[in-house]
Amino acid sequence: MFIDIAAISLKSGKGGDGAISFRREKYVPNGGPDGGDGGDGGSIYFVGDRNLRTLMDFKYKTKYSAENGEDGKKKNCYGKKGQDLILKVPLGTLIKDERTGKVLFDIKNEGEKVLVLKGGRGGRGNVKFASSIKKTPRYAQSGLKGQETNVILEVKTIADVGLIGLPNVGKSSILSILTEAKPKIANYHFTTLSPNLGVVNIEEGKSYLIADIPGLIEGAKDGLGLGHDFLRHIERTRLLVHVLDVSGSENRDPLEDFDLINNELRDYSEKLLEKKQIVVLNKVDIEDSELFLEITKKNLEDRGYEVLVTSSITRTGLKELKYKIYNELQKLPIEEETFDEYYDEKIDAPEEQEPWTVEKVDDTIYVEGPFVENLLYRTNIDNYESLDYFYKRLTEVGIIEKIKELGAREHDSIFVAGYEFEYME
């Protein structure tokens, strides 16, 4: 089975909490704070792997979490960083935001590694809050929560050449002869249920990758048959080899078949018709094939297409086709698709750069935004010193000043990230 789309949930690791600890050593009077920092949570990466062809693994497991960071320890010992989670995907995988459909990353190269979710930062231990004024701080920071998101993985086969055409025109047979691939071949429609890939070797250092795209049918662009799911694989190819059955064995007109397929390509994406096409008139070994051969060949050549005549049974024309494809590829540029990609936000931006808002609604002041949410999450509201640090940070970034500008009076209720605080001058 070929799985080329998968929806999965991701969660990076939570940062470990900072430790509250004090030195307790013999002969060391007035031991100071020695609580260490918590370890950062593990991040989630995707890596391109040329040995993978499908997203089968993601079909059976859909939730992935990186390891949490360890809490800080006494004696200034830091908590261990959470282990990163590295997920391997086939080359040609798009990583999309499930909510918006926006492409975040496009993995094309072997070993290409992209960061999708960064782990939460570890909290600072109480040793980091010691100063000449406050020598024995009795508070520490909690680690930041990990990030969560849902993504869609979508594989678009990366091949130099795509074999296209209606079902049962002989594409798989041509592929098996040109390469060492062993596609399933039989005389019925939809034999090919997934794109078969093979390498065509010309000589040492000269080769190309060819894909047998599953047979299309009329209405493929609208999702009929297998076509809609696999039209995307044609987008990555540089050259199309359009295979037609000129034997008349299924009572079809090859010219009508040619136009039908190209109409499906055009309706899916105008760019597909801009790709170079070589037309292959196949199955000329079958009796009565000459009835369609000459008129089809002349018609297509008059339209400007290069036409080759082949037979998988007698091997007619296949050597010529093999080298013709290679020579055409030398003339075609390697094009890279571009997308509206990557995150607009800075995942690991300093707290001071994280957004916050202060607004007054019906005489009540509300403070919201990632900055205050993260700061409050890391604050022990039952600890006076921790609350004092919380107030200090709000002052440093200008939130307290903004609250004053909005006319806050003593004992007014101020809602910070959903929590109610009493305002004191």
Automatic annotation (TrEMBL):
Gene3D superfamilies noted in UniProt: GTP-binding protein OBG, C-terminal domain, GTP1/OBG domain, P-loop containing nucleotide triphosphate hydrolases
This protein's name: GTPase Obg
EC supergroup of this enzyme: hydrolase
Needed cofactors: Mg(2+)
Protein role: An essential GTPase which binds GTP, GDP and possibly (p)ppGpp with moderate affinity, with high nucleotide exchange rates and a fairly low GTP hydrolysis rate. Plays a role in control of the cell cycle, stress response, ribosome biogenesis and in those bacteria that undergo differentiation, in morphogenesis control.
One CC-aspect GO term: cytoplasm
Matching PANTHER family: DEVELOPMENTALLY REGULATED GTP-BINDING PROTEIN-RELATED, MITOCHONDRIAL RIBOSOME-ASSOCIATED GTPASE 2
Family, as annotated: Belongs to the TRAFAC class OBG-HflX-like GTPase superfamily. OBG GTPase family.
GO BP annotations, alphabetical order: ribosome biogenesis
Classification via HAMAP family: GTPase_Obg
Gene: obgE
Residues at which GTP binds: 165-172, 190-194, 212-215, 282-285, 311-313
